[in-house]
Structure formats: structure tokens, C-alpha cells
Amino acid sequence: MSREDKLLQSIAEQLANQGYAIINHALPDELTQQLYQRVTTLVPEVFKPAGIGRYQAHHLDEDYRRDRIHWLDANDPAQADYLVWMEALRQGINQQLFMGLFDYESHFAHYAPGTFYKRHLDAFKGESNRVVTTVFYLNPAWCEADGGEIALYADEQQEQPFKTLYPQAGTLLVFLSDQFPHEVRCAKRDRYSIAGWFRVKALGAVDPPR
């Protein structure tokens, strides 16, 4: 079994056993560096404020989230390689867990110093076709003093997170979209990641709105 096959199997097993997976150095270091170089050389104007809600309820709320996003472009070689890797992950999860994941979409996320995303769920049961969330971190030499950690909660009643994770380059977080409330705490320096969602066909609502 190849390293990639073992990695995909490990992610599927962790999802089945605990609902989330954390993988360090998930993708080749060269690809991670290429993605970081790409996102940090994009002109600021291509990043748009991220909203909350869907359709008529979709709106901006800077008291709730202040990140800015730019959807991935499959015409860029590094971004195309990332999407190919995620397609392999989609197929691997489906083969082992029979989740019926149909497609994937993702965007770069930029948190400037002082920005955050308050506690939220990526999907609500029966109200969204998002099933599995992925977050891939691109930040080299990140340390605790830089803030910007993601905090995962077991449920909406839990006051303290059961897991916090700093956005160190090469770390991949995968979790069930409707199971874990989470937040991005205030970043102290520019923080970059790729957020994405695997979706199923069965539900009529399509997330997120473009």
C-alpha cells in the first residue's frame, strides 16, 4: 500500500471512529509551499468578505466573522494538484465509509491580524448538503503567540473545546460538518488556509452561496 493510500485509509478510519481527523504533513511539502506562495501573491482585491447564512438570509456580519475568501482556480497548477488530491480523498472516503460524497469545492481563506470567526457549525442536520469539512493550513513557522487557532467543541452546550489546533503549514483537519461547532480565534499575523466541503446530492439546498 502506498503512503497516500495509507493516509486516505487513516483519514477514513478516524472519521468513522471519532468524527474528525488531523494529519500533519498531509500533502507533499513542495505543494504546500507552492500553495502558500500562490495565496500570498494574489492581489488583495480578489479576496472578498465572507458572509454567513444562505440565499435570502446570506449577509455580512463583521461582528461574527472577518475573514476574506477567494475560490480556488483549477487552471492554476498548484491549485489543480490540490483539487486532484482532494478528489482522491473523496473517493477514498466513499470506498470505505459509503458516504455518497458527490463533489467538492473550496476557497483560500485569509485572516488578517485582528480577524476571527466566532463559534459556528458548517452544516445543520437535514438543512445542508455539506457533509465533510476540510481545512488545510499554509502558514510556515506558526507559533502559539500568533494566535489564530481553531477550537473544536463536542456539541453546542460544551463551554470548553476538546481540541485546539494551530494553523501550521501542512496540517490537514477533516471533520463531519454537522457534528462539531468550531471557531477561529483572533489571529495576530496573516493566516492562510484552504477551507473546503465535500457534499452529497440527496439534499436540495446547495452550500455555500456564491
Structure description:
With 210 residues, the chain is an alpha+beta fold. The protein contains three helices and eleven strands. Helix 1 packs across helix 3 (77-97) and helix 2 crosses helix 3 (77-97). Mean pLDDT is 88; it is low at 55-59.
In what order do the strands lie side by side in the largest sheet?
1-9-6-11-4-3-2
Q: Work out the helicity level.
A: 10-25%
* CATH architecture term: Sandwich
User: For this structure, what is the CATH homologous superfamily?
Assistant: q2cbj1_9rhob like domain
The CATH topology corresponds to Jelly Rolls
Structural class computed from helices and strand pairing: alpha+beta
The main sheet comes to:
7 strands, antiparallel
- What is the approximate shape? globular
Q: First CA to last CA: what distance?
A: 39 Å
Low-confidence residue ranges: 55-59
Order of helices and strands: HEHEEHEEEEEEEE
Helix run count? 3
CATH secondary-structure class: Mainly Beta
The Cα radius of gyration reads 16 Å
- Give me the count of strands: 11
Strand content: 25-35%
Our count of domains comes out at 1
Task: Please supply descriptive tags for the structure shown above.
210 residues, globular, four-stranded antiparallel beta sheet, alpha+beta, single chain, 3 helices, Jelly Rolls
Chain-wise SSE layout:
Layout: H1 3-18, E1 20-23, H2 29-41, E2 48-49, E3 68-71, H3 77-97, E4 101-111, E5 117-120, E6 130-137, E7 150-152, E8 163-165, E9 172-176, E10 182-184, E11 191-200
